[in-house]
Design a protein that fits this description.
Blueprint lengths: L11 H12 L4 E7 L5 H14 L3 E6 L10 H7 L11 H10 L10 H15 L5 E6 L6 H11 L7 E8 L13 E3 L5 H11 L5 H11 L3 H10 L10 H9 L5 H14 L3 H13 L20 H5 L3 E3 L6 E3 L2 H10 L2 H14 L4 H11 L5 H16 L3 H13 L4 H17 L3 H11 L8 H15 L3 H17 L5 H18 L2 H14 L5 H11 L1 H4 L3 H8 L8 H13 L7 H14 L2 H18 L2 H17 L3 H18 L2 H15 L5 H18 L2 H11 L16 H10 L3 H13 L2 H4 L1 H14 L3 H13 L7 H18 L2 H18 L2 H13 L16 H11 L4 H8 L3 H15 L7 H7 L7
Parallel strand pairs: 1-4, 1-5, 2-3, 3-4
Antiparallel strand pairs: 6-7
Helix pairs in contact: 1-2, 3-6, 4-5, 5-6, 8-9, 11-14, 12-14, 12-15, 15-16, 16-17, 17-18, 18-19, 19-20, 19-21, 20-21, 21-22, 21-23, 22-23, 22-24, 23-24, 23-25, 25-27, 25-28, 28-30, 29-30, 30-31, 30-32, 31-32, 32-33, 32-34, 33-34, 34-35, 35-36, 36-37, 36-39, 37-39, 39-40, 39-41, 40-41, 41-42, ...
Amino acid sequence: MESSTVPMVGRAGEQAELAAFVTATAGRALVLRGETGVGKTSLLGHAVALAEREGHAVVRAAGVEAESALPYAGLHQLLHPLLGEVARLDDGTRAAFDAVFGRTEEEPPSVMRLGIAVLGLLSLAAARRPLLVVLDDGQWVDDASADVCGFVGRRLAGSPVRLLIAVRSDTASRFDTAALPERSVAALGTEDAALLLDRRYPRLGRQVRRTVLEQARGNPLALLELPAQLGDRADGRADDRAVDALVGEHGVPLPRRLQQLYGARIAALGERVRAELLLGALDGVATVPTGGPFGARYRMRDADEAVAAGLLDVEPGTGDLTFRHPLVRSGVVRMATADQRRSAHLALALVHREHLERRATHLAAATVDPDEEVAAILEAAAGSATRRGGALTAVAWLTRAAELSEDDSGRSRRLADAAFVAGHAGRLGQAQRLVVSASAPGRAAPPAAVLASAYQAFYQDGEVRSTGRQVTAAIEQLRDAGSGGSDEVLARLVTLLLAISQYAGERPAWERAHALLASLGDRVTGRTRIHGAAWSDVVRHGTGCAAAVERATADLPVLEPWEVTRLAVSAYHLDLLGQYRPHLRRVVDRELETGAVASGMVMLHLIMLDQLAVGEWDSAEATGQRVLDLAEDHGHALFAAQSRAYLAQLAALRGQLARARDLRAEVDAWARPRGVGFLTQLADAAGATAALSAGDHEAAYLYAIGITPPGTFRRYTYQASRTLLDLVEAALHTGRVEQARAHALAARDAGLPELSPRLALVTYGALAMTAESEPEAAEMFARAVAHPDAARFPFELARIRLAHGIRVRHVSGRVTAQHHLVPAAEAFERLGAAGWAERARAELRAAGAVPRASTPRPVPLTWQERRIADLAAGGLTNKEIGTRMHLSPRTVSSHLYRVFPKLGITTRAALRDALSRTEAVAPV
């Protein structure tokens, strides 16, 4: 950092780029990256001066290390001068800011929604004159704020807003992967370094000058500060011992030497001034915002001695004292004793007593001995952070709360809670270490530790048998002990048991779980009872659940992320998920970054399932691949297998039979030995769909009756009702008319039409397919297509139209049949359901109509897809392609399976011809 009183030297290239940046007609972002003291802040100041001369508005902020764990603290500081404009925004945008900055209890929005809101606010603020937003020390900005800044920075084109950010090159930050344009700020060249030194110290002796230039190595801050370390003699010569000391530290990193230089000045200050500086250093000093959810920073006062020593600057507009450089701030903290730091933190906790998260931060550092009151405050702050998308911060606070607990039970409970949150945040290794810490040697693990340990074993390894026994025993232990401070652990154990039972997918597990729930009486919440009914056996326990789920969703904004996903799972089983998908989208990206990544993956699974249901199959494939990649990255083998099962079903629907069979086999091989019935049912359902798509109705029937026998819906079998049409259609096509009819009647008698809109549609469709008279068939078909939600399920509706059209052709003639067959064929074409589309076209031809030629719209390949396709067409294996492109064979295979439908082919052998037809289409 160069002094503001010294003209900038040797920065012609940087100044020219900043001038072009500030005066450009279009908005953009730029990151300045360089080592400590290289002059980034001076360049920011130069840009600000240019902007002000051009008549631009300027907003400045700086990252603060003390706030780097507080979600959205950086964003609040950055936007604070503009928050007066929020009232002019629409209700939805205002709600996003109100949720983030603590004005309401609404759940904070996703990065995308909040980023759009920030873009709207910046554009509004820049309506009268262009706006320059400057962020210094970006490496200290909290992750949530940095993600929003990155989102905004990538979307400023066409706006009158510029975003300029400075970050240290030697400190990792979120901006390292923000994909924003960058300018590297290097050290000064030899001539420029000498010029800067001579301007600031014109009377410096030759020996000192040579030593400083050699040691500073072109770093402007070092050039301006090192001479003071070498003495201040009238003849311009240096103290020999100081020179020897400086030269002797040649191997010490320059930032550390500069910190030591500042340390000498700090040590010379009076005790009262050092204490004042320590308060400012630990709280981040006062820059811009006051009030709000994070409170005002501490304002240093009566520190003229530090100003005179060159350690503090005075802000011209406000008179606030600020540290001249972050190294001064870190030096103040480093030189203070442990007792001094604790006293300062305690004083700051009192300053921020109205602001939970900042108060918790200081109390955590101020407290040494166990203190239950402080532990409770940290626990409350962890809950607040979790709801705001800061699960990783919550883990740290819960761990510290455990250390400060006054008894073993509190310590174990909080450590286990930290492990539970860490598991949801995708930190399974950290969760395991916390579980070990929560269990006292030689004693049975407390229920809270069982919760965290079982959670990890279940989601990481798919272990349903042993975890079910462990969780059941822990629930019984809490039940027998009676209520008393453990209801939250009990509720989480019960929910985990329900999840384990759901994935086990077998009657004995669910009957034990329901019996245990009944024994708990009023200690089981209404929401948990909804989960137990909807997740287990919707055919027998789903009556009335839909209304209860809709009532419970009124609490979505204040629920923890894992509670949101559990309620959404219930909505999925009741085919109500579509109305909650926007909420899941708002929170999923936030949770995948610093929050509950496991909940984020569940949300992505649910989003994919809804995309499948409504016919958004391209989006569903992208979502499925995304969650598969996340699950593999975070070691969630259960979620990875589940993602493959859903992708297998999608491939089967599209007629990608080889891929469907490969994925189905992989899921089955992983899940069946572990007893994960939920996934083996999914695998069988994908097998049935693939067989139907291929016209192999015998194989489809065998897969379908493996899930449930005809004429009944096997208890606690998730796919039993969902494969209703598969079993009926396969039975009819293989001459098993009685079995098909029995199954359709069983659906009617079980009350499936009252449980969900989708089940109503497929039940009436099955009754129409198996009707014993034409009036009955017409009535049931009319009920199906007239259902108010029928259009929400285009694939099932098209199957019902196709089956009815075939029946009508045989009974009422070809012309009447066309009224049903044409919309069925068009729907299958739109969806990309290749096997069914071909069948519908064949039926249209049989009905005397000429089906419209199938002309699939060419979908451009990405550059990577095109390259992989070219190599595959040239005869290379997946392994050989992966070696060339630095990809795994599995990734190559996934890309090829996405390429085939884009090119309108189903085999590798057809690649060369398909690519030759698309030569005119440039890859994107």
